[in-house]
Amino acid sequence: MTELMRAAVLVDGSDKVAVEEIPIPEPNAGEVLVKVAACGICHSDLSVVKGNIPFPRPAVIGHEISGEVVAHGPGVADTVPGPGTPVVSAFVMPCGTCAQCARGRDDLCTSFFGVNRTHGTLYDGTTRLRRTDGSELRMFSMSGMAEYAVVPATDVFALPASLPLVESAILGCATFTAFGAIRHGADLRVGQRIAVFAAGGVGLNIIQLAKAHGATEIVAVDLASDKLDAAARAGATHCVNGRETDPVDAIRDLVPGGVDVAFEALGHPETFRQAINATADGGRMVPVGLSLRDAAVPINKVVRSRVSIHGSYGARTRQDMPDLLRLVDAGHARPEPLITRRIGIDEVNDTFAALERGEIVGRAVMCNP
């Protein structure tokens, strides 16, 4: 008899997930089966649910997980964590063989964007998920909002013993995305001054990691006082409420001349422009948030002030995740303070609704029993 698991399934014509029992997947060559302990609840998942990010349906969503290795598929190297090992996985699952992966640019993996995030399959062109009637379910990254997930072996990393299994799920997206923005988007240096527009899950991680990388002044900008309080706890030296004052003027008052790097973690045209205008001459603006609308760039500011705009989408999985885990293991940034809601799979829709209303401070995670 086929063993079943519970999974959050998104179907055609719906803006909610349905919890279904489906067969536990099996890993193919070069893949690992993980028993999911927790999966973060991310705005990208919400955007897929609402249809703002096009994705084939029916599908199982969820893309930042922690868990325990259950089994290896054929051909998986002995260096990959074995059964019983606590692990985390990043949302960017590198194929390891395309031209981008070959030059170390896992964040641009052709197969991830052209196969998984376009067609909802793994890299042999097929999905590992099916309903009990045999019909296929598409995969958003590894489809982590389930009890088990199949992950390419290139994206399975042993979790240091000092880190809690459930809370560490957010290392795979919220923290991973922030790390890529700090390391590659900003190329942040000790002593630099930064601003972070939007103190959500990614923004709070940027603040933590910027502090760990030696930023001396960190200005957090948000519209919600509770999120600014969280930003201060994460390491922000100044907090600006965009409802009460013009953020650009406030930043330039706090940091004369403007910041060296401004991070935009919301994906809103207005904050995109504000981040550019808050940047010092010769500085850098790093947009991280995705948007349904394009922003009108202040061209003269960019040209005359020599401001660079360096987009950042995640990090480089194989080289960056080990470094990130070492950094967190050393205590320079931690996932626990950023988790403010722990839910079961039956509460996913309510949590998405709260996320859409802006009520989630930090990150919510779905936990399996």
Question: Could you describe the 3D structure shown?
Answer:
The chain is an alpha/beta fold and 369 residues long. It has two domains: 4-173 and 315-367, Medium-chain alcohol dehydrogenases, catalytic domain (Quinone Oxidoreductase, Chain A, domain 1, Alpha-Beta Complex), CATH 3.90.180.10; 176-309, NAD(P)-binding Rossmann-like Domain (Rossmann fold), CATH 3.40.50. The protein has eleven helices and 18 strands. The strands form three sheets. Strands 3, 5, 6, 9, 10, 17 and 18 form a seven-stranded mixed sheet that branches. Helix 4 (174-186) crosses helix 5 (201-212) and helix 4 crosses helix 10.
Fill in the CATH topology of the largest domain: Quinone Oxidoreductase, Chain A, domain 1
Which structural class best describes the helix and strand composition? alpha/beta
Number of helices: 11
Taken from the alpha-carbon principal axes, the silhouette is globular
CATH architecture of the largest domain: Alpha-Beta Complex
Distance between the termini: 22 Å
Uncertain residue ranges: none
CATH hierarchy, class of the largest domain:
Alpha Beta
Proportion of helical residues: 25-40%
The CATH superfamily of the largest domain is identified as: Medium-chain alcohol dehydrogenases, catalytic domain
SSE arrangement, N to C: EEEHEEEHHEEEEHEHEHEHEHEHEHEHE
Strand content bin:
25-35%
Largest β sheet strand count, sense and barrel closure: 7 strands, mixed
Family: Belongs to the zinc-containing alcohol dehydrogenase family.
Keywords: Metal-binding, Oxidoreductase, Zinc
Protein name: Zinc-binding dehydrogenase
GO molecular function: oxidoreductase activity; zinc ion binding
